[in-house]
Specification:
Layout lengths: L3 E5 L3 E7 L6 H4 L7 E7 L1 H11 L3 E9 L2 H12 L7 E4 L6 E6 L8 E4 L12 H8 L3 E5 L10 H12 L3 E5 L12 H4 L8 E5 H8 L4 H11 L3 E5 L5 E4 L4 E4 L13 H14 L4 H16 L17
Parallel strand pairs: 1-4, 1-8, 2-6, 4-5, 8-9, 9-10, 10-11
Antiparallel strand pairs: 2-3, 6-7, 11-12, 12-13
Helix pairs in contact: 2-9, 7-8, 9-10
The structure holds adenosine-5'-triphosphate (ATP) and magnesium ion (MG).
Length: 314
């Protein structure tokens, strides 16, 4: 069965340069050679939206782009992937963001450099038509909330409050602050907790959100704080999924080949949310997240090798 899923958060381009460059600095500054270069529509929300679409769901995406070439590429590729772009605001006179991954030295995620967009991560004011669009769904998901401190406002909180009142499932992968923020970051998220059912974070985010040092203690604290379901992604060690009754550590699936691990967390999110929407157990939903992430590692960025629904069964 397919679901209608509202997604609010940032969409941007990823430029990925994959090849082999010398690590000796004197050789490197003289180096000029061929590499594989990809320009991919990504961003925390862009990845989750495209991945959930690939699983057969109808995506109601609300975001912003600039009226520049970056924005044009993002809109056209989202349309090509079957995602409606009517509720993506094009901000005039602004510049789009890009993340540049320089995979020339053997690592599959770093070094990386960024250009921040000058447009909003998602609309500052959420209009009634956007709200209706996001709430005409089975699940409302937010990605990248902590990235954009200028958007920690009542419009966002009221959106999730209304979703809960309507009985819509809600989820969040807050990522991390792009501007310095002292831990515990939970002070920023706390007002939202009553309206968020499912929280998905990685290990360092869990530590920084809670201000604790130990990952299982951090996991327990997130449940005590009021999230119903928590997933903590642990990179090559897999993930912990828990609710108030059970806590399961699930091992990662090592793929035969890792092309890159960019957006693996977003691939996990999409697989995990799909499992929960289908009413699978917490453990089996976690396994779907792990399988989705493992397949994503085998292609460029989060989306290239993200599986269709049939391939997510294990
Ligand atoms: N090197 C790896 N080997 C095997 N699996 C991996 C590896 N790196 C990531 N994964 C898989 O991807 C999932 C998510 O990865 P990670 O912990 O890096 O999330 P994240 O930090 O949220 O990522 P993102 O950068 O996309 O936000 C893990 O739970 C694991 O299943
Ligand atoms: Mg992440």
């Amino acid at each position: 069965m397919d679901y209608k899923i509202g997604v609010i958060g940032p969409v941007n381009l990823d430029l990925i340069i994959k090849g082999n460059a010398p690590t000796n600095i004197n050789e490197l500054i003289e180096w000029a050679d061929l590499s594989d270069v990809y320009c991919i529509t990504a961003g925390a929300a862009g990845n989750v939206a495209q991945n959930l679409k690939k699983l057969g769901n109808e995506i109601h995406l609300v975001s912003c782009v600039a009226d520049d070439n970056f924005g044009t590429i993002v809109l056209s590729s989202l349309k090509k992937s079957g995602i409606q772009t009517d509720f993506i605001t094009v901000e005039e006179g602004k510049e789009g963001g890009i993340a540049i991954y320089i995979l020339l030295f053997g690592d599959n995620k770093r070094p990386a450099t960024y250009k921040m967009p000058t447009h909003h991560g998602w609309p500052h004011e959420i209009s009634e038509s956007m709200r209706n669009y996001l709430l005409d769904t089975d699940l409302l998901h937010s990605s990248g909330y902590l990235h954009f401190s200028d958007l920690w406002n009542d419009d966002f909180l009221n959106l999730f409050k209304e979703a809960k009142e309507k009985g819509i499932k809600t989820s969040m992968d807050p990522q991390f602050p792009l501007k310095p923020l002292d831990p515990p970051w939970i002070k920023v998220i706390k007002p939202l907790i009553p309206y968020i059912d499912i929280l998905m974070v990685d290990e360092s985010e869990a530590i920084n959100i809670t201000g604790l040092n130990e990952i299982n203690e951090a996991a327990d604290m997130l449940i005590t704080e009021g999230f119903e379901i928590v997933a903590i992604k642990l990179g090559e060690r897999g993930a912990i999924v828990l609710d108030k009754d059970i806590s399961e550590q699930i091992s990662a699936i090592q793929p035969k080949i890792i092309i890159d691990s960019i957006g693996a967390g977003d691939a996990f999110d999409a697989g995990f949310l799909q499992g929960l929407l289908e009413g699978k157990t917490l453990k089996n939903s976690g396994k779907m997240g792990i399988k989705a992430a493992s397949m994503s590692l085998q292609g460029i960025d989060s989306t290239e090798k993200f599986p269709t629904r049939a391939l997510l069964d294990f």
